[in-house]
TrEMBL record:
GO cellular component, one term: cytoplasm
Keyword Hydrolase attributed: yes
Catalytic activity: L-arginine + H2O = urea + L-ornithine
EC number: 3.5.3.1
Organism: Steroidobacter denitrificans
Keyword terms of this UniProt record: Arginine metabolism, Hydrolase, Manganese, Metal-binding
Pfam families assigned to the protein according to its UniProt record, in alphabetical order: Arginase
GO molecular function, one term: manganese ion binding
GO biological process, one term: urea cycle
Cofactor: Mn(2+)
UniProt protein name: Arginase
């Protein structure tokens, strides 16, 4: 299948107002330094770098009424929503360079608005160590980067929940979460109650990444808009130390590559977030370079040409 969108637009959102640690604000530049634009161009995409969005600094205050920095988080998410939506309207593939994962609210709200207008079905793949399904009642910290998916599903502060122009922006059944291994106790019950589709590490351990991805990508058709929200802490910290909230026991290099390659095989990736990269915790920008390497696979880089069988499985690689 040929991808319908071949022009990608990079949108930097240099902020960490939703995070537990400072430093994700340096993520966009680290991804550029690691050669993201060149890598995408190497995959045959035309790449426009729209530069960075602007917004308030990080006031580093405690939670008020259960939320930390709500005003700042709303400001940044409005910027992100408008920028991502504008690129989708222009038939480009927006790539949001985070920034912490609270910005997934703005990005996915824009995708949801776009899909509604174009009569397309949104499928969100949330690659993350965390479910990000907290509310202010459930969250131990009040950090909004742990509440993104709940906000998108209609649970959260009005200004964030309403961003897409409809509440909820998405239904839980539009989401597939992969790589999950850290969920707060009360959040766990809420995930279950709302019926979120989660392929956690136990599932990946027992069934393999291939089965998880087959499940996560099942039921799509030609009208599906696939949005990938890639939190870099999805990856095992042994290979990806450059994030604020490392959780041991994540996907290995090979598992992550397979995940990205299987998404690429669908040919339906229409929007992407690369989130939570934190250069303050990284070593020689290696996590940024790994993220770029994985994004290449996400856009179809593979070792050899592979025939895809009718079942969606692959045959042995052929070198001709
Ligand atoms: Mn996250």
């Amino acid at each position: 299948m040929v991808q319908s969108v071949r022009v990608a637009a990079l949108i930097g959102a240099p902020t960490d107002v939703g995070a537990a640690d400072r430093g994700a604000s340096m993520g966009p530049e680290a991804l550029r330094v690691a050669g993201l634009q060149e890598a995408l161009a190497g995959r045959g995409l035309e790449v426009l770098d729209r530069g960075n969005l602007n917004g308030p600094g990080n006031p580093w205050r405690p939670a008020v009424d259960g939320y930390r920095h709500l005003h700042e988080v709303v400001h940044w998410n409005r910027q992100v929503h408008d920028a991502v939506y504008a690129q989708l309207q222009a038939s480009r593939l927006p790539i949001l360079l985070g920034g912490d994962h609270c910005l997934g609210i703005g990005s996915i709200s824009a995708a949801a608005r776009h899909c509604r207008e174009k009569n397309r079905t949104l499928r969100v793949l949330w690659l993350d160590a965390h479910t990000d399904f907290n509310t202010r009642e459930l969250s131990p910290s009040g950090n909004l980067h742990g509440m993104s998916v709940a906000c998108l599903c209609g649970f959260g502060p009005r200004e964030l929940v309403e961003l897409s122009g409809q509440v909820p922006a998405i239904e839980p059944r539009a989401v597939r979460q992969i790589g999950i291994r850290s969920v707060d106790p009360a959040e766990k019950r809420f995930v279950h109650e709302q019926g979120l589709n989660v392929f956690d590490m136990r599932y990946i351990d027992e069934m393999g990444m291939r089965r998880a991805m087959r499940g996560a990508l099942s039921g799509m058709d030609e009208r599906t808009h696939l949005h990938v929200s890639f939190d870099v802490d999805f990856l095992d910290p042994v290979i990806a130390p450059g994030v604020g909230t490392t959780v041991p026991g994540g996907p290995t290099y090979r598992e992550a590559q397979l995940c990205m390659e299987m998404i690429a095989d669908t040919g339906q990736l229409c929007s992407l977030d690369i989130m939570e990269l934190n250069p303050a915790f990284d070593m020689h920008n290696r996590t940024a370079m790994l993220a770029v390497d994985l994004v290449e696979s996400l856009f179809g880089k593979s070792t050899l040409m592979r025939p895809v069988d009718a079942d969606g499985g692959i045959g042995a690689a052929r070198g001709e």
